[in-house]
């Protein structure tokens, strides 16, 4: 197995873990309050990552710590919105709505650089809005607060991605990624202390939730993503990450018995299509050297066969 294929396989595993995170959050919120769950998730992830990469953290400079503070603050806001949203919507809905991050990123870049979005982004937005309507609107044309929070979380996550792309150009990205987990966990602990009663999980399901979120979805996910993306293309990464809502829906169905209505499945399909449309640049693929040649060869081979 070559390096690129190994990287794609690892990213697929990361995507699967991220898809399971919505179910883990649902499980954890039955015994642990929202900010408390965020504190435990990112606090444990930071401790584990810090142990593995302690040498990098020791040499972190003030600039990296400052950037990590802002990154961690945004990350906390992202998961505060998503965690509260998951509590009042289904894990399936949350997975598909948060995947809209992929659509929001090019829109934010369009606003930042004051230029018209590409046609594929416009098509993706139209598909996304239609899908959101089918997925979330009730017969009274009302969107639940949980769905709105998940959409807000997707927008905040898009901001996080855009800001990360700028900040990582001048500091060590892995150190930045680990430190931001610590700041996100610290914010969770502060808000939990102010508004809740911080506690450790006291049931097996809650511990499974916290350990799954912290070890697999956060520590493993962030570390492996950073390492694997070095050996694959952004297109492959984006396509693999677009499978996250599919995994979310599968985990919710397999372990929680969740299912969508026919309208919901239609909306989910349009949201997924919008993500793929915004991610894939068909014109760029068609312009690649050798594409037409390989296409011609495949046609010749099929005729010969």
From TrEMBL:
<feature type="transmembrane region" description="Helical">
    <location>
        <begin position="148"/>
        <end position="167"/>
    </location>
</feature>
<feature type="transmembrane region" description="Helical">
    <location>
        <begin position="174"/>
        <end position="194"/>
    </location>
</feature>
<dbReference type="GO" id="GO:0005886">
    <property type="term" value="C:plasma membrane"/>
</dbReference>
<comment type="similarity">
    <text>Belongs to the EamA transporter family.</text>
</comment>
<feature type="domain" description="EamA">
    <location>
        <begin position="145"/>
        <end position="276"/>
    </location>
</feature>
<keyword id="KW-0812">Transmembrane</keyword>
<keyword id="KW-0472">Membrane</keyword>
<feature type="transmembrane region" description="Helical">
    <location>
        <begin position="37"/>
        <end position="55"/>
    </location>
</feature>
<dbReference type="InterPro" id="IPR051258">
    <property type="entry name" value="Diverse_Substrate_Transporter"/>
</dbReference>
<protein>
    <recommendedName>
        <fullName>EamA domain-containing protein</fullName>
    </recommendedName>
</protein>
<feature type="transmembrane region" description="Helical">
    <location>
        <begin position="67"/>
        <end position="86"/>
    </location>
</feature>
<feature type="transmembrane region" description="Helical">
    <location>
        <begin position="236"/>
        <end position="256"/>
    </location>
</feature>
<dbReference type="InterPro" id="IPR037185">
    <property type="entry name" value="EmrE-like"/>
</dbReference>
<feature type="transmembrane region" description="Helical">
    <location>
        <begin position="206"/>
        <end position="224"/>
    </location>
</feature>
<feature type="transmembrane region" description="Helical">
    <location>
        <begin position="7"/>
        <end position="25"/>
    </location>
</feature>
<keyword id="KW-1003">Cell membrane</keyword>
<dbReference type="InterPro" id="IPR000620">
    <property type="entry name" value="EamA_dom"/>
</dbReference>
<feature type="domain" description="EamA">
    <location>
        <begin position="6"/>
        <end position="136"/>
    </location>
</feature>
<feature type="transmembrane region" description="Helical">
    <location>
        <begin position="121"/>
        <end position="142"/>
    </location>
</feature>
<feature type="transmembrane region" description="Helical">
    <location>
        <begin position="262"/>
        <end position="282"/>
    </location>
</feature>
<dbReference type="Pfam" id="PF00892">
    <property type="entry name" value="EamA"/>
</dbReference>
<keyword id="KW-1133">Transmembrane helix</keyword>
<feature type="transmembrane region" description="Helical">
    <location>
        <begin position="92"/>
        <end position="109"/>
    </location>
</feature>
